[in-house]
Amino acid sequence: MEALYSEKIDDFRAEFLDLHPYNQAEFFSELDDEDRAKVYNFLSPEEMADLFENLEADEEDFKDVLAQMNPNYAADMLSNMYADDAVDVLNELDKDQVASYLTIMDEEAAQEIKDLLHYEEYTAGSIMTTEFIAISANQTVRSAMYILKKEAPQAETIYYIFVVDEDKRLAGVISLRDLIVADDETMIAEVMNDRVVSVSVGEDQEEVARMMRDYNFLALPVVDFQNHLLGIITVDDIMDVMEEEASDDYSKLAGIADLDTVDRNPLAAAKKRLPWLIILLFLGMFTASLIGRFEDTLDKVAILAVFIPLIAGMAGNTGTQALAVAVRGIATGDLDKESKWNIILREAGTGFITGAVCGILITFVVYFWKGELFLGALVGISIFITLIIATLAGSLVPLLMHRLKIDPAVASGPFITTINDIISILIYFGIATAFMSYLTK
What we know:
This protein is mainly alpha-helical. 65% of the residues lie in helices and 6% in strands.
């Protein structure tokens, strides 16, 4: 900071370039616009590219940051970034701005970025990189090593080298270790592994993340429908995807539109939260009107009102637990391996056991507290039935949404809780009304 303020370029560069790119990005994020302008003068576009690849999209507005740079400087920086990282940045901009930068960028880099930009967002094509090393099956290890040394500086990873045939179709893969230990005159076809796992360019990024987790890969090849090798997805990109998907699911479970960005403006934060809150407000009004329909029952047995929060709260809690398990199972793919009937039976059994235990427990608590055995039995039976239905609802709603190709996380905790409130009130007062004669004795 001292070198930056005093504009000692050599001292600043010596200290700054000795930092890891992640730490460079952290330092840059703390600067104001005036100090950032100095950094642009002190660093080359290539050096700035290393920093920019480590900036967090949820902490920085790429549109504003690029606007602070000279357009030619920004274009050169984007040209020196890995193509998939440059695409992530350009996806944050308006189409006119993207076209402007592509026009003044290096022609080869611009073409690579254009090839990636047309892939649908959140697919394998949108997160893959075209900077990989491919060799031929009918060449020697010696010639492959020559290609590796030549192309390694531009490649995103060199730990896997992919093998293609004459038509650029994916034929196999060889690890860097196997390539190094093989005899120089050995043909690649003899040492490569032809049982290579790949993903389609249109595959959802969440499924790609699961595959890399299951196979413990550092990189995964991306192919088209004819098995042509188009690019690779590296583990660092998958870590970003997993964080993004987890944040997205959590925000939906919380009933918030987006938690990826921290809104320092209260108005912006309120705008994101209000839609769900307004929906839940009207559902809450429906719950209130439902209680109003049982006004006669409450007038005759006022003590029933004491247990409304208890029963509604238990329904909401057990429904949210089942929802969390179901959404996580869908997200990890575990539930796809299991029969839906097995899931339903398991959740029904879970609801039955928890309902029975809680129901019996509350029956005795109410009896010793109020001295009313029938009242205790009424509350206990209501909780028993409510917990079974709430558990089933918490698991079945996300399963149904998943079947209909709707993101199951939108069956958020607040939504399930409110629905279960309505169900529990109906059960509780329905039973109370049916046995009113026993309660008023």
